[in-house]
Amino acid sequence: MRSTRTAGKVFSSLLGRPFDLHQPGELGRVTTESSPYSIVLDIGYPRCDPAALMAGAQRATPGWRAAGPRRRAGLAVEILRRLNTRSHELALSVHHTTGQPLCAAFRAAGPHAQDRALEVIALALAECERVPTNLRWEDTRDARRGKAPLSVQGTCAAVPRGLSLLIGCPDYPIWNGYPGLFASLVTGNPVIVAPHPRSVLPLAITVRIAREVLAEAGHDPDVVTLAVREPGERLHQRLATDPMVRIVDFIGSARFADWLEKQASQAVVFAHRTGLNTVIVDSTDHYQALVRGLALALCRSSGTVRTTPQNILVPTSGIATDEGLISPRQFGADLGASLDRQLGHPTRVARLIGAVTGEEVRASLAEAARFGAVVHASGPLGHPEHPGADLRSPLLVRLGAQDDRIYAREWPGPVAFLVVTDSTSHSLAVFRRTVSRHGALFAAIHSTDPLVLAAVETAALDVGVHLAENLTDDVPADPASAVADLPGGDAHFVTGRFRVVRSRRHAPALNPAGGPVTGSGELVGA
Amino acid sequence: MRSTRTAGKVFSSLLGRPFDLHQPGELGRVTTESSPYSIVLDIGYPRCDPAALMAGAQRATPGWRAAGPRRRAGLAVEILRRLNTRSHELALSVHHTTGQPLCAAFRAAGPHAQDRALEVIALALAECERVPTNLRWEDTRDARRGKAPLSVQGTCAAVPRGLSLLIGCPDYPIWNGYPGLFASLVTGNPVIVAPHPRSVLPLAITVRIAREVLAEAGHDPDVVTLAVREPGERLHQRLATDPMVRIVDFIGSARFADWLEKQASQAVVFAHRTGLNTVIVDSTDHYQALVRGLALALCRSSGTVRTTPQNILVPTSGIATDEGLISPRQFGADLGASLDRQLGHPTRVARLIGAVTGEEVRASLAEAARFGAVVHASGPLGHPEHPGADLRSPLLVRLGAQDDRIYAREWPGPVAFLVVTDSTSHSLAVFRRTVSRHGALFAAIHSTDPLVLAAVETAALDVGVHLAENLTDDVPADPASAVADLPGGDAHFVTGRFRVVRSRRHAPALNPAGGPVTGSGELVGA
After folding, report:
1. Across the interface, do A489 and B266 touch by the CB < 8 Å criterion?
2. In the predicted model, what is the mean pLDDT of chain B?
3. Coil, strand, or helix at residue A137?
4. Structural domain range at position B231
């Protein structure tokens, strides 16, 4: 891996100039990004005719399919190896386009994200190779009548479903984008990568490296292309509903996921709803750790990303803790105080808080503060190195369970609601109702009661969301199963990208003019 | 297995009376079937309120999910074992409702169909058990700083997607229905079975046996229910688009498959298009075998089923054969003569030809005969045992490649077209265009030219249809991979029916108040 200094130079060399990809159908240049850290990006991406990109993918398809899963997986690993050497540059590109703190951006763009991709590559290869390539069987019915058995040989093939569209997201373009990209590539599908206009660079670098690897290996580079849109252009919608597009990957709002599942009916849609991350607080043996952990979670990269908790559900009767019964009001005050302590040091702020990249976050903060009781107001924070960066502390608003028209929708930016419910079982009902409708990246429960834990586990299974139980620390997600985070869980995420098609013929050794056979057969080899 | 005579008695005992299922929400009785073999069926199925069936399935869901994949697979096998003892009765029910000859009905309803189901059960169990149930990992970052590592344990669960709808088809209710039914059951999803009004009994018997097995094992029998509709009632459409229905299985016309994929956007749709079964004839070394095999295929159960070839593509320059160059006109005449030979014996007719069950087949035959040149006219045939049965010989009409408004749609009944193309590569283009749009159960190629075979193999992969090469006999489908016939190929057919959801917590041995951890972890056991 190159040093951070070199990576910084490479990154700087990308700024203020066209970003070349040598793709078909170039119509002009488009510049859509700006860094919240007062650096001028001004990168001009090629805007290409979508029809030309799709035609390019179609031309590239037969060769990519013919390469077979092992070679495709090998090239995918080579793409990943080169991306790995560019981790710092990718981290800077995520940092400057999403506003995430640099250390968080490195986690979201570097080896951890590559690890997820590697797991998907291995899984996709394994699933392709589970398809038996050669079969041979005999019909023995005639043998019983004294005739030679009729031998048939068959070939199975994992047939790629077709052109794949990756719709990039503005907060985790690489972390969320790589699994679908590499799953489609290894299963033999060309991919059009359509980044969010606010964060193009991380995926543009990725596409350029992928095209380089493909071309060097003698493949048509149009197996992977970048489709950049102007802000306001409905390119994602146009591509997603094109009859040629057979796979769509998207991680983001329930609204767009719903739209995709309804409108992109010609495609398999892998949509993951970020939705309403929910924390149910019932009781705890470690109150201080709970408050500190939750405050930290509310801060983490909270400028833009959707991985912070939004809805914190507490019963009106209070929380039983090792420090006695804590009322919702007291809990809110303690959370607010902990937030202030976390954000007391400028260097810590720079490490924890992301810079706001879009107007929608500022609008969201202003709007949310008008509802309910503001428990912790969002205020500007100073960045020690980038005085121009717009950093905001988390907003925490107390609501009643009846205010679901407010908390039962996704709020961009560092907006969280302390929702006071009638009881923990009421919290559970609110959780079920809101998350089954809007999805969530995760849910968390704090309780010392095994019955409550069991009930929440069942509810989390019912609504299909990952659950953390009594984890007061910012514990890493399951490192052994990155893919389990993906839409639909592991195997389906890759098996949905191909079909199995068979052909069969007489086995060569046999006289094809044998008598008619109508019965069943027996497998003689695989 | 009980004797045929006993099965006949059991079958007779079902006729002319209500068929009890003890399902929730019974509104009345509905009778929709009639046998083309002059037997009065007059079976009254319970018509149930769809909302009550869905509510019943919802009530049954937690217990069925909690049973786990091994127990569910065990019960599925027990259902199958009992179905196996009723094979003759099931065959009679398929014979009398679909019109298929009895021997064909036995193949489509008996051990062969059960074999497919057994394969799906094994596959679904294996896929569920691939999900790791317990994970444990440690965060060693703090250990490097001299602190004890933080241990986290995780649980993964294969969460059933939800209520499954099986839309039965009128020609192969069991053969086509069992894979989806058993895949959904083993992966933990309750199933509403909605048969085609023309063929209810085979699936009604199946549902009754499934409910008996479930109840005897202490499970809620509403895991499996039957939803019978009156002719003309849009019950299938209503159920398929209900928000509660999360999985839909359908094998049939491209038109309804398209509708389902568009409208049932809340569900995973496993739709298989029967479409345009196509035979491309280029050249052969065994002309007589080719003609005989093709004539036999045109006859086979041709009263109703969609497994006969519809479009036979031949180049206008003729077919190179071991008997010289055969013109399309000569080929048509030879096929017609072979059809007449095949149908020369009444007992053979009864074994080969299915009885027409619906007006649409008669209308289809009448309409198709008005286009092009009739090469072999469809005429009535006598059944040796059922003089009242309406048996029709296959219709073969010669068309030009330009007549695609005629041959590029599905024709019910024994209708086939000899389509004369400019050349074999033109045949290939016609095949690609029509089958990629309408699907097909299979394609076949006859050629002695390896280049033609390779081109057709590629085209078959492109359009995703199974291919038989130079198989002049009625060779059994690959017995080792029944599931490969299913929509989407094997693994996806079951993995699409569940999601993987994780929960995680501190490993019990550890002090949960350990310091904050933000790095990645290492897997220490699985």
Report:
1. no
2. 88
3. strand
4. 4-136+151-273+492-498
